[in-house]
Amino acid sequence: MAKLSLNMDEYLPLRDVVFHALRRAILTGEIKPGERLMEIHLAQELGVSRTPVREAIHKLEQEGLVSMIPRRGAQVAQISEKGLKDVLEVRRALDAFCAELACERMTAESAEALEQAYIDFEKATETKDATIIAKADVSFHEIIINSTGNERLITTMNNLAEQMYRYRFEYIKDESQHKVLIAEHKVLMDAILSKDVERARNAAMVHIDNQQQSILSQISI
Question: pTM, whole model, 2 decimals?
Answer without folding.
Answer: 0.77
